[in-house]
Design a protein that fits this description.
The protein is α/β, with parallel strands linked by helices. It is built from 16 helices and 13 strands.
Length: about 450
């Protein structure tokens, strides 16, 4: 029988509390696009993306209308491009980047990810060439996103790559300083990167993934906040966690339905549901707002890390019961520029860089979309990346760094991107030197618990 209350609840989730499918991401293997000639590689990549993604946006829009559930982003993730270009005798990774961008724009997606390399234990020729080309590639494209995996719990941390990526972040910012350094906003440094992550800027199609698959990212921080507010402050922590679990189940069920329907229309396999609560700058769609509903005066108050830990865990426990294939990152994101409550907290000084780093020990990603002074030294950025890699490595979780050194701006200034990327205040960073440490090079060994075979 049709349950009138369930129908009304879903309508309210969508209309009043910003429930949406945050992204449908076509994961596409490009392993068969390898050639010694870069022009042939580009032709193969272009044709394959056009073939598999030609109906992605159209069919997603049809489902959005059929079910009245917003699908905010349509995206593509491809095999790490360092692997595809390194067989070329005349490698030109910027040319490949432009090809990816052109194909993405022609099929109408918002972003394409996978301008990536996996260098946790060292570099191949292709890895080095790709990393050197990242700033120029991001400056000359619109849709392209890039990510580099620098560490894993099994391999340790490649400190040579950490320093190289700190230099790359700074250069990407400098080449796009006329656009508030957006190049750095499309570049992520990972520990334990997920090969089936549908969210940008870190999405890529891992080498163990199928030829193609549809991965879905659901979101609903506004729905979670509304449920907590309705519960009231008399509820104890167990009741609070249980309420979040129930809501996460409902959110995930919606994503599973839409994802499977879209995969069937595209005639490709359904991949995974990523349970991450991804905020937006829209009012009422904030993870920071959930903390306030729980009883904290603002994000950044003592207790914020505990609240985030409970939220992350409850979302996973509830969501995993609604899907046979949960993957990606899953949990809760805390990108400063993309969350209205986080923006406010950072502007007021409630959220410091150190507090954000502490919160990353229990959230889905890490230091995400944080604007820092443009004169921050490369070695300091390398220290930030190394710290975050260490949190991921030791805790056997995915962590990431997406900091934006805003060239020409200092503490108190703001960056403005609009849309989902939002805006953010430039916040202060520790001025103590990291130089002698980060320039030792080499590899920080994997922790003892990596020996668990």
């Amino acid at each position: 029988m049709i349950d009138k209350n369930s129908i009304l609840e879903t309508i309210n989730m969508i209309k009043l509390h910003n429930l949406d499918i945050r992204t449908v991401t076509l994961a596409l293997s490009l392993r068969d696009c390898v050639s010694e000639d870069v022009d042939i590689v580009c032709d193969k990549i272009y044709n394959k993306i056009k073939k598999y993604a030609k109906n992605l946006v159209e069919y997603a829009n049809e489902l959005e209308n059929d079910y009245s559930i917003p699908i905010i982003n349509k995206r593509i993730a491809v095999t790490p491009i360092s692997m595809i270009g390194e067989a070329c005798t005349n490698p030109d990774y910027v040319k490949i980047a432009k090809t990816l961008d052109k194909a993405a724009r022609e099929v109408g997606v918002n972003f394409i990810g996978g301008f990536s390399a996996l260098v946790e234990k060292g570099f191949t020729r292709g890895d080095r060439l790709l990393m050197e080309s990242i700033p120029e590639a991001l400056a000359q494209t619109e849709c392209l996103c890039s990510s580099i995996n620098l560490a894993t719990s099994k391999a340790g941390i490649n400190m040579d790559a950490v320093l190289k990526m700190a230099e790359t972040v700074k250069k990407a910012a400098e080449l796009t300083k006329d656009r508030d350094c957006i190049g750095a906003a499309k570049l992520v440094c990972f520990c334990n990167s997920a090969s089936d992550n549908p969210f940008m800027a870190g999405a890529f199609c891992g080498v163990g993934e199928p030829e193609c698959a549809l991965n879905v990212g659901v979101s609903g921080p506004g729905v979670v906040r509304a449920a907590i507010e309705e519960l009231g402050f008399d509820a104890d922590m167990s009741e609070l966690a249980n309420t979040i679990k129930k809501i996460a189940y409902k959110i995930t069920t919606t994503g599973e339905l839409v994802g499977r329907k879209l995969a069937k229309k595209l005639d490709i396999p359904f991949g995974v549901i990523d349970l991450s609560l991804a905020p937006t700058p829209a009012e009422g769609d904030s993870v920071a707002g959930i903390f306030q509903a729980m009883g904290l005066e603002h994000a950044g108050a003592h207790g914020t890390t505990a609240a985030l830990a409970m939220l992350n865990d409850a979302v996973k426990k509830g969501g995993i019961m609604a899907s046979s294939h949960v993957g990606g990152l899953s949990g809760a994101f805390i990108p400063v520029s993309e969350d209205a409550g986080m923006i406010e907290a950072a502007t007021l000084g409630h959220l410091t860089f150190d507090k954000l780093e502490a919160m990353t020990s229990v959230c889905s990603v890490g230091l995400d979309m944080i604007a820092i002074p443009g004169d921050t030294p490369v070695d300091t950025i390398a220290g930030m990346i190394a710290d975050e890699m260490a949190i991921g490595m030791i805790n056997k979780k995915t962590t990431a760094v997406r900091v934006i050194p805003v060239i020409g701006k200092g503490v108190g200034d703001k960056i403005y991107y609009g849309g989902l990327l939002g805006e953010a205040p430039v916040i202060p960073v520790n001025k103590l030197s990291s130089t002698k440490f980060v320039r030792r090079g080499g590899r920080i060994p994997a922790p003892i618990h990596s020996l668990n075979n």
